[in-house]
Amino acid sequence: MIEQNVQKLLESLPKTNPFGEKVTLVAAVKLQSPEDINRAISAGITDIGDNHVQEFKDKYDQITGNPVRHFIGHLQTNKVKYLLGKVDLYHSLDRYALADELSKRGERAGVVSSVLIQINIGNEATKSGFALEDADEAYARIKAMQSLKVKGLMAMLPDVDDEKELTRLAKLMREKFEKLKQTDPDIQYLSMGMSGDWKLCVECGSNMIRLGTAIFGKRNYQN
């Protein structure tokens, strides 16, 4: 099933978004076994994203195929030391304390970490991230940190059925991304879109999507 799901996704994924940018598929591997992750990689997945530090540590040496490693979950500052130098792109830089910790540890270790600034585009109390109106200030402060390289923005759209509202929010994210991109050549990624809304997000300008269920099926939280 995993192989067929990957093949189907890769065939249905547009080569580019409406802005002519390549769309990168990140497989969200939360609660998946190393064997199933490796099956997805063998089927054509090039990028994988972890949500939990302990899972990342437990599975790190069991993953084959040398995929690009993303960390896509909420990250506690006291767990940064376990990921430093092993993660290619952090998606969820959602507060200054985390940015400070990543930068300080990176400076001591000689590691520059690539990050996406998380925007709470729906102003949801249940989600972390910077408010859209604070995005410019967050970008300026984090970009100035010595051992961080800001590569773009990340957002999770609200889980609602109002497609008009979701489209509006996704387009606001794209506008902010465009503004930053015009002045900073390091800005490359707008990570937005999961298994339920990725098509809408790509149509609105996302160039990186994070899919788990669409690849591995429904997660078994009993694992």
Task: Give structural notes.
This protein has 223 residues and is of the alpha/beta class. The protein has one domain (2-216): TIM Barrel. The protein has helices at 2-12, 34-42, 53-59, 80-83, 96-109, 135-143, 163-183, 198-203, 213-216, and strands at 24-28, 47-50, 68-71, 89-93, 113-119, 148-155, 189-192, 208-211. It has an eight-stranded parallel beta sheet with strand order 7-6-5-4-3-2-1-8. Strand 6 (148-155), helix 7 and strand 7 form a beta-alpha-beta unit. It is globular, with a radius of gyration of 17 Å. The mean pLDDT is 96.
Level-1 CATH class name: Alpha Beta
* Overall 3D form: globular
Determine the CATH topology: TIM Barrel
**Tally of individual helices:** 9
How many β-strand stretches? 8
Q: Oligomer, anyone?
A: single chain
Number of domains: 1
Beta-strand content:
15-25%
Q: How are the strands ordered across the major sheet? A: 7-6-5-4-3-2-1-8
Please describe the biggest sheet, giving its number of strands, its sense, and whether it closes into a barrel: 8 strands, parallel
Query: Residue ranges: pLDDT <50 for 5 or more in a row?
Result: none
